[in-house]
From TrEMBL, chains A, B, C, D:
EC number: 5.3.1.5
Statement: the UniProt record of this protein carries the keyword Metal-binding: yes
Compartment(s) of residence: Cytoplasm
Record has Methyltransferase as a keyword: no
Main location, first listed in the record: cytoplasm
Protein's name in the database: Xylose isomerase
Gene designation per UniProt: xylA
SUPFAM superfamilies named in the record: Xylose isomerase-like (SSF51658)
InterPro entries per UniProt: Xyl_isomerase-like_sf, Xylose_isom_bac, Xylose_isomerase
Cofactors required: Mg(2+)
Alphabetized PROSITE patterns for the sequence: XYLOSE_ISOMERASE
PANTHER family tied to this protein: PTHR48408, XYLOSE ISOMERASE (PTHR48408:SF1)
Length: 431, 431, 431, 431
């Protein structure tokens, strides 16, 4: 037992209680026939919480963590502290990149040995913990070798390195019984079109993703393959811009029934969408998977990865998640980092606890809106005309026959109110 | 002959000449085996130039045009003046929406009669003019009936009205021997997800576009069907967000070989892309069609539709157009409006003349960059590794075999310079 | 009594009641020694609610109002309906531009006659209504004569016209016992620097504002003069960009103790600020006056003027208002328009009712946070070091003596946590 | 002589020559009575060129420089290579932060000793070089002690540390005969208003700047004190948001005639302004000083600090610089960093060379536009009405007398064209 979180007691549901308890998150409370914990499926992210030193483009490390340092001992200490926090939070899941959990070696082989050793260490820890693995992923963006891309690199040897890395990470995820495997293409994009062959890089990316899917089937991994879209940052343009873009990409490479989306609120914002838009779109296209529930500042153009704090927004997100049928293998990951001024261990626990409560409140409001039914009834009523057999028949017709009917019937349709403010008022009754 | 442009003489190529001549646009000059006019294929847009009254969200009409008024006489006067300007500019093409050229009637039938009469009038004028029709399109966004969408309207009768309108506009485009038919979905989107059935509306939009394609074949129209993407404005979210989004949509509805893109610089900007990105992407996906060469202010969030004025940017755009093989049925449309303070007739002519010159300069620079070959040689050199048989074989392989090779060969790839600044310097030699 | 709002009953506080009652707004409830109505001081805006036809840059009028038309009879009907809605809402205040309430005449004199007649009509209506005038203002942006500015126009005759208009509007505001007079410089800016003399226009604007202040004193108007900042739209750049910009302008022209800010949430957002930033800054500079409580969509670049709907955000705003001492002459104006698809009379009433409830909830949360005191105690504790006499003395010192002390004492200050997430959690206990 | 730039020859003016010569920058060519070098006054920035390791928020160091390492030997090697590049480029100026040039010590005293030793080393190098110091500045943002601000820190000891640092940097700048001293408040702002006392921090910042001005006079430093505005990044909000904001701040603290602006193109863009706006505004307020001629990507929300590459934009900037009277103590600094993929020494030289050429072309175009005179003649003509004695008298008048004249004379001013497109066409003749 490290003393990093000394004096911090395990958090429990305590609606009127002490500072660090949960006021709203009550894992065992049942909604729509399922426990809240099983609906929300919270995950703690290893990288931001335990590996990020607090730097930004204008300043260096602010956090002093006893486990910072590139040795195996430090990696084990980091894992110990991580699981201590998972326990404090009663977190059902966690997530990692390979680079979060193991020291970088001088060679691929050495990095792999370090990685495999730590995977075993994590496996042992998981045996005595309730916390399971929501997903694993490979960091194919941090090291300078990836500066021009991983799968989309102009150098085929970096494609090879990346493929070998993904293999190792998929193996490890499978070994730890992970629920999903994620790919985020932080360097799969470009800084300038002048040095970029867009078409070639797209082919490389498509083949790489196919290989990951093929390998999943080969090893019998039952979890989902998830792609996480983001429009830009670190690169000027990233190929996995948003859900709609990735959908087209999946269709081109025949992967639309093999791959799902891991949608981050902050990345939706950066792409010019609301989070609920991305969720609803993914659901409507049959590719909804999981979420990263960390917000972006609406007014910065970079990825602030903040813990969620706005209940009405979170409620609209879970409303879409519930309408999509809820999570199967997916969950609610906090891909969120503390502000770099939040130096204390208690900040890390409080940030997660506050976020879990915000999500619990939003989720409960979403359930209430769904069970109330007014919103969906009004939506159905708006489109009711399309349920008529005439309307359905029209969709089977052609322009000429429709034009003939317009002429013959002298139709002159009148607009009807969209009732946006009334709908917003209804939402506000629940949040 | 109206006196609207009195005292303005037809413009000609006059590199050192008077204010309103072309300093750079020389239609007959040959580049890469084709006349400049045949490369650039300039088109004047009827709506902004002749139908827009100059209003903005905080102010009303500023332009006083003698043809403003909803009568057939006014519509004919408008056509007369338009062709006078086409002649002054020696413009090879023009474009219209139905609503630009005819007065709205009280009924569909009356609007259609007005429209057909004006189409005949335009046809007659075209007989004595060099100016041809680049494309026609239907305005399915201005009238209040379209406030909640056209094809994606919750009311099937508005779908019907829209379909009948598109039929009429396709017929007219065909009759006038138009080179393309365009669809821009200004209201095909939503203001709030709370009242929207995203999935249903997507199906409606997909079927509508299929009908347009089917009708094209039925009537034997040989031009291209073009979709013009835009991310937002007027609606909060528009379904045809950008090229990548439309590609996914086309794939879903089996239309990717039937429909091409009409890409507007300003809409690319609003979607968070550079214009050249959208061009290169469309080309790489095989759906490049035509362009609207009007810029957006980078720092406004709305669609400013300004005439192009930055030669280096225009050069990069035509570089992508040329790499895509140049225009076939497409062309360079100015979907641009005067600033609302530019009241005088000469402003309208000068704006087009300046834009044509900017395009001509950019085009010539693009040709020179291509013929010089340095940029493409450097690009090829960057990806040369992928031309090896080993690299090609790797793409046929799988993760496990690649990982085995990485382990066996101990590969440790080193990054190489992306040379962005040197490439930008090279571009600056030509612009 | 018009029948526009037929079937809509006056709204009252009814926490568990019918659709259109107030669930949270309870005018007579006392907080911090003052009635809620006297804290919030709600105002309905005449223009958006009764004069705006529903157009946007891509579409025309959507609203069909029986009072639309440029006659005095219509203007009186509009006033009748407006007061009917004020009564339904129990609104303590309203606001107008001259152009909202009277038909435009062919000459200045005729417009003035229309205006004065309507002012008298409003005065009569106010006698039998509880609704008072929060502020009046002149529309110096809608008519084409203002297209290049009002006070900052290159044509001095338009300066004159604008000055005469402001005089008339100040007279009328005074006559109706308005609480404030507002200036919003929608066209006081530029489209292009190429045709603009920034320095000269700044001098014109400064003198114009001085004249308004002088005139206030001359006629004995006791209300405040308010300037409403906005960064852009309609023009590319507006001189009253944000609070900080206007403060510098007031300092230059010696007006910082004569003029206060009317701060709109949406304009704060467009300027890249949070609303609470603008409020806190104005308060810290001694120029806080009043608010326009209408939100902007964070992801559009234009002014969406939506009714507020996010309680946590509104709570943070009222927290700053309360810290600034609350409103004196100012109030909470809804400079908000219905979405253009919200066609029905009930939409107009519901939008205001929902907004008033959102504000009431936010206000109550703000009061609770202030009374709880944790936030302010933590803030004070963070700056406690500055309360020491040494720290205060340092501010009286100079670089050399401070440097000597740093050297002598070997100081090595260590950073302390900023506790942002914990503070956000505290806020979430109240909203 | 290091071998870092081996094989790279000194660059000279060679309009038709080799890759790395100047095609446009000809230091001795005379424009408006002054040598081009004396107009442009180029400076190389030490930090980005020699101290930045190439990291971004998602990836670490990409550059391998032989001088990386925190020792005095490395600092001297860095200085050697820097001056080798200054010589290659024939750069008249350079700039530094304290943290760029010396290793950080364990204590203030040790850092100061390192700093003073390196200042002496630079002084010696400058004796045998043409390159002078444009400005020095203190890095008060990189180290974790500054994470919550320097002058505006809640901890007065950090204010003290900052003051002592600025003293040392001003002393050193004075010793090296620097032309200016710059302050950029990268951490003078906040992440959240919840933990911030805006008013108190403003007072701290104001007093700090006063102290710097007082110290300048005390030591007899004749250069200018420059403040560099930036709206955000690294903090969510920075107090020196833009030129207008800083002007208000200077007025509040009585510093408007003591402090000038160092305006960066990229920061102007991030604040929602064009670069030329910030230049023209500073000039009109009498606080124009110097420029950082590095562009921002218009479509990223973070500070990309790219070398300039767009000649038309640069021309408009120098047009404002020339209209402001040109530089006195100021100059053209490249606060620009290579793209992190530009690994090679030649990239560093080429980036500067290309930027200098872009500036030279833009400058020459600006001179030509000024000497041609059309733009200014059209501007004067637009405001000619204000030169009449009537108009001037009106500005001395009051609202009532102006209103009386409007009534009496029945004035009805008509708008005149703003001629934006024609003006843009004129600019395009020169760029
Ligand atoms: Co993120
Ligand atoms: Co994420
Ligand atoms: Co457009
Ligand atoms: Co267009
Ligand atoms: Co507004
Ligand atoms: Co307002
Ligand atoms: Co910068
Ligand atoms: Co700078």
């Amino acid at each position: 037992m490290s003393d990093f979180f000394k004096n911090i007691k395990p958090l429990s549901y305590d609606p009127d209680g002490s500072d660090l308890g949960f006021r709203h998150y009550n894992p065992d409370e049942v909604f729509m026939g399922k426990r809240m914990e099983d609906h929300l499926r919270f995950a703690v992210a290893y990288w931001h919480s335990f590996a990020w030193p607090g730097g930004d483009p204008f300043g260096g490390q602010t956090f002093d963590r006893p486990w910072f340092g590139e040795t195996m001992d430090m990696a084990r200490l980091k894992a110990d502290v991580a699981f201590e926090m998972f326990d404090l939070l009663n977190a059902p899941f966690f997530c990692w990149h390979d680079a979060d959990i193991r020291p970088e070696g001088d060679t691929f082989a050495e990095s792999l040995r370090n990685f495999e050793e730590i995977i075993d260490y994590l496996g042992t820890k998981m045996e005595s913990s309730k916390t399971k693995l929501l997903w694993g992923t490979a960091n194919l963006f941090g090291h300078r070798r990836f500066m021009s891309g991983a799968a989309t690199n102009p150098d085929p040897e970096i494609f090879a390195w990346s493929a070998a890395t993904v293999k190792a990470c998929m193996d490890a995820t499978h070994k730890l019984d992970g629920q999903n495997y994620v790919l985020w293409g932080g360097r799969e994009g470009y800084e300038t079109l002048l040095n970029t062959d867009l078409k070639r890089e797209r082919q490389q990316a498509g083949r790489f993703l196919q290989m990951a899917v093929e390998y999943k089937h080969k090893i019998g991994f039952k979890g989902a393959i998830l792609v996480e879209p983001k429009p830009q940052e670190p690169t000027k343009h990233q190929y996995d811009f948003d859900v709609a873009t990735v959908y087209g990409f999946l269709k081109e490479f025949g992967l639309e029934s093999e791959v799902q989306m891991n949608i981050e609120q902050g990345h939706a914002i950066l792409a010019g969408h609301s989070f609920e838009h991305e969720l609803a779109l993914a659901s409507s296209l049959g590719i909804f998977g999981s979420i990263d529930m960390n917000r972006n500042d609406y007014q910065s153009g970079w990825d602030t990865d903040q813990f969620p704090n706005n209940v009405p927004e979170v409620a609209l997100a879970y409303y879409e998640v519930l309408k999509a049928g809820g999570f199967t293998t997916g969950g609610t990951n906090f891909d969120a980092k503390l502000r770099r001024q939040s130096l204390d261990p208690v900040d890390l626990v409080a940030a997660h606890a506050g976020a879990m409560d915000v999500c619990a409140r939003g989720f409960k409001a979403a359930v209430a809106m769904l069970e109330d039914g007014t919103l969906e009834a009004m939506r159905d009523e708006r489109y009711a005309g399309w349920e008529s057999s005439n309307a359905k028949a029209m969709l089977e017709g052609d322009l000429a026959s429709i034009a003939a009917r317009v002429a013959k019937e002298g139709i002159n349709p009148q607009p009807r109110s969209g009732r946006q403010e009334i709908l917003e008022n209804i939402v506000n009754r629940f949040v």
